[in-house]
Amino acid sequence: MRASLLQVAVNGDETVESRRRRVADLVREQAGADLVVLPELWTTGAFAHEDFGREAEPLDGPTRQAMAEAAREAGVWLHAGSVPERGAPDGGSGGGADAGEGPLYNTSLVFSPSGELAAVYRKIHRFGFDEGEAVLMSAGDALVTVPLPHTTLGLATCYDLRFPELFRGLVDAGAETLVVPAGWPERRRSHWTLLARARAVENQAFVLACGTAGTHAGVPQAGHSIVVDPWGEVLAEAGPDEQVLTVDLDPAKVAKTREQFPALKDRLLGLPTPTPRP
Questions:
Q1: C-beta of residue 184 within 8 angstroms of C-beta of residue 45
Q2: Does residue 94 surpass a pLDDT of 90?
């Protein structure tokens, strides 16, 4: 299975519409790949909080249309990163819901090679510690997996990477390849690499972690998109600038790893509460 991670540069000197067209062309250039992955919030930038509401789209908005067409023309499965989604006014309460407006979500879209929308994942863990995304956007509430011909994807986004229980839930739901689009800052790049490898090792799964390059609202991005195998070995890693990172994966390695080193079978769930000593 050939996977291409598009580490898109996101800078304020490019309009959203211009970047949308450019990224669609990049996707088209990946014809021959099986899976293409884009970063988190590449239309606006993950730290451009003031743009979330202004550039938010409904699910059938311009990014969905452009990415569906690009996936179809390239003939690839496309994880189109994430976009700020404006939900329906009755779609629930939460951050970003001004009077008469629906809530905002950080929403990932996955398209089939025919351009059909195959999955939607709304980011569960929002970053910001009571600021930024954490207060502007509402949380998703569903784990999402996507069956492909060669593997089953488990979807997560950026800050989700710090919460291993989410990934364990995805593995329990059948995930073999964990896809993590992100807008990860350069100042915590060491965490990005460490956590991607940890999630691969503990779940015995491939991890495809695709970040952005450039600077979002004055925050330099880490870049360094990374592909990790089920043993935690780094198969490919990008540099800091815009780059297409392409790697060939053997999907059978997941089952082989889990058979050779069956650690997942030794999980003990629902442990009893320790009895206090007299």
A1: no
A2: no
The two three-digit tokens of residue 55, written as one number = 């550039």
- Backbone Cα Rg of the chain: 18
Catalytic residue among 85, 123, 133, 210: 123
> Where exactly are the structural domains of the chain?
2-264
Phi, psi angle pair for 18, to nearest 5°: -65, -45
- For the domain covering 2-264, report its CATH number: 3.60.110.10
Annotation marks residue 40 as catalytic = yes
Element (H, E) at 72: helix 62-74
Question: Active-site residue among 55, 158, 176, 210?
Answer: 158
How far apart, in whole angstroms, are the C-alpha atoms of residue 156 and residue 135? 19
> What digits encode the pLDDT tens for the residues 11-68?
989 999 999 999 999 999 999 999 999 999 999 999 999 999 999 999 999 999 999 9
Cβ atoms of 236 and 226 closer than 8 Å:
yes
Q: What pLDDT score does 277 carry? A: 67
Question: Contacts from 84-91 at CB under 8 Å and sequence distance 24+?
Answer: 84/41, 84/43, 84/44, 84/51, 84/52, 84/53, 84/55, 84/56, 84/57, 84/137, 85/56, 85/57, 85/58, 85/59, 85/61, 85/122, 86/53, 86/56, 86/57, 86/58, 87/138
- The answer to whether 158 is a known catalytic residue is yes
Query: Are residues 208 and 180 in contact, defined by beta-carbon separation less than 8 angstroms?
Result: yes
